[in-house]
């Protein structure tokens, strides 16, 4: 059907065709809309539940991580105090033949290196566990060193207490770390569940809104075209058709001409500013 054929169709016939199309849309949309609403009502609570469980696990992981890091820092402080006592005993002649591996500076360097690696590799759980084990290994070395020396010195008891407390704190850090690793795996599954249901919810919400808007638009159009057909009044709707029939320009041609004129004026203004 070309432009002349369209112009030959009566306004009333065109209005009836549009009305029929709107009626068909108004019949089809409700069923699809109901399906999307059901889908949305199912997805919303599941997405919310998955998000809450994931956030709850994240909170527990953060708590365990803080507990682990705090225990590690306290263990280091006790460990360094134990070493200070050992150095004091050696300097006072209470202990002899110190193990070169236990030189104060070397021990401090080891502890600092472990702490730095823990801070910079906080996201790698296997690496974190390796560092905890390294500190526990240092404790064992210290334990062996002390056991080979005399326990009759007055500061030896404090040194042993520091060592034992540090050892217990590292055990606490290990337990917190193990629990955290388990929760991290669980959290990954819960996050995947959240992403899945959130995607379903988001798509259902978007489709529901589009269908609601389409239904509202169709209902408004139905009322509009019913009134037009009943009143048999189309004069204001066929202004463009009358103009074309009488040899005038179409709406598209007018819009194109306006756009071209605007571009010419903008170019002229641009040249004027340059001059």
Average pLDDT metric: 75
What is the string of helix and strand elements?
Answer: HHHHHHH
Helix tally equals: 7
Query: Rg from C-alpha positions?
Result: 40 Å
Uncertain regions: pLDDT < 50 for 5+ in a row?
Answer: none
Helix content: over 70%
Q: Strand pairing plus helix content: what structural class?
A: mainly alpha
Q: Name the overall outline.
A: elongated
Strand content: under 5%
Distance between the termini: 52 Å
Total count of strands: 0
Describe the overall structure.
85% of the residues lie in helices and 0% in strands. The mean pLDDT is 75. Among the domains are: 60-205, no CATH class; 234-265, no CATH class. The chain has seven helices and no strands. Helix 2 packs antiparallel against helix 3 (104-120).
Briefly summarize what is shown.
The chain is mainly α.
Tags for this model:
mainly alpha; 275 residues; elongated
Secondary-structure map:
Layout: H1 3-8, H2 11-91, H3 104-120, H4 125-147, H5 156-231, H6 239-245, H7 251-274
């Amino acid at each position: 059907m070309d432009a002349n054929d369209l112009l030959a169709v009566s306004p009333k016939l065109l209005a009836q065709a549009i009305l029929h199309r709107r009626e068909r849309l108004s019949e089809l949309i409700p069923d699809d809309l109901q399906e999307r609403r059901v889908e949305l009502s199912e997805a919303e609570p599941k997405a919310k539940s998955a998000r809450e469980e994931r956030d709850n696990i994240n909170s527990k992981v953060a708590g365990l991580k803080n507990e682990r890091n705090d225990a590690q820092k306290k263990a280091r402080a006790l460990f360094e105090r134990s070493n200070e006592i050992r150095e004091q005993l050696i300097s006072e002649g209470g202990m002899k033949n110190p193990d070169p591996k236990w030189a104060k500076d070397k021990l401090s360097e080891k502890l600092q290196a472990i702490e730095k690696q823990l801070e910079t590799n906080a996201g790698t759980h296997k690496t974190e566990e390796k560092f905890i084990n390294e500190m526990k290994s240092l404790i064992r070395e210290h334990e062996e060193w002390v056991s080979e020396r005399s326990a009759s010195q007055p500061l030896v008891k404090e040194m042993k207490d520091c060592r034992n407390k540090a050892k217990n704190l590292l055990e606490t850090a290990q337990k917190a770390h193990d629990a955290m690793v388990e929760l991290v795996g669980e959290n990954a599954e819960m996050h995947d569940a959240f992403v899945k249901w959130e995607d379903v919810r988001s798509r259902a919400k978007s489709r529901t809104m589009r269908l609601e808007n389409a239904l509202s638009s169709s209902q408004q159009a139905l009322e509009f075209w019913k009134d037009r057909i009943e009143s048999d009044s189309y004069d204001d709707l066929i202004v463009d058709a009358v103009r074309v029939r009488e040899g005038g320009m179409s709406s598209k041609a007018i819009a194109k001409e306006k756009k071209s004129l605007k571009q010419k004026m903008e170019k002229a203004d641009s040249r004027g500013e340059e001059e």
